[in-house]
Amino acid sequence: MQDYETLTFKKGIKDGLPICLGYISVSFAFGMMAAQGGLPVWVALLISMSNVTSAGQFAGTALILTGGMYFEIAVTTFVINIRYMLMSLSLSQKVDDAMTSLQRWVLSFCVTDEIFAVSMQQKGNVNAHYLSGLMLTPYAGWSLGTLLGATATNLLPLGARTALGIAIYGMFIAIIIPPARNSRPIAKVIAISVVLSCIFKWMPGLNGISSGWVIILCAVAASAYAALRYPVHETEAQE
Amino acid sequence: MNYQRILISVFIMAFVTYLVRMLPLAIFKKKITNPFIRSFLAYVPYAVLAAMTFPAILYSTAGIYSAGFGLIAALVLAYHNKGLLTVALGSAAAVFAAEQLIGLLC
Predict the structure, then answer these.
(1) Which is more confident, B56 or A143?
(2) Residues contacting A37, CB < 8 A, separation 6+
(3) Has residue A235 got a pLDDT over 60?
């Protein structure tokens, strides 16, 4: 129970800051893409503020620009974002029992890869105050980056823009590598998932499957294997 | 520009994305007790992030070589338990340096 005191709204805001910085560069690229495709700034901003996804809204916007059908837009968005279902399910076991339905409905709006990753890094359960802080800064960054990218398309030199494309992946690596050093099962989960993901990307015949499904398949296979082989014994009290 | 079509499309995107995120959180309010499912869900974050990062990281910059430099930088920094921002910006800096270098040589 002591964990609850330390996970305050303020700590959430602070933990959200690195995510926010990463988001500004990604959403900047999104703003540019939308503006270059001919969408007005306010539509680009509306998409960012109502979707808060990277790949999902990139693909959806590309479909809008190329005249995709509503059904096509719905299915594409669903498939690319289906990994969020797994994340929300995992997060549902991490949030504290005091969280109300209303809080769940509001906070689930902003479950992104990075916010999910940082939440799961915390010890014990996470509460609504912490989560709202953790979502607020990245949300602001996501919106601001879109606005900047759509209004001033060539603010950053090209070299800096392409280099920042790797930043979000650098963050993911910073999240998964340190625990893998101390836990063999986690290291195995990562290895299996990486190998599967590379097979899906490079194997002829399999590389037509959309990235949303690939992530689900790899994650389910690797996690199920590890759960059978190395069941987690609860050492930390989670109630 | 057909604003009606654009706004309906944006609404569809937002609605589908929200449902996918909201349903599991709203439905699973009790802690799951099954040990297999609990273990499975404990491993999911690592598996998801690993599958998202590899091999996509190699295609995230201007070229696969500069991305390779960035990947190595990220792995080394992360292995030494550096913070998220340090690793993120460190790998971006490595990519930037590599692209400048490649630009000079070619």
Answers:
(1) A143
(2) A61, A62, A65
(3) no
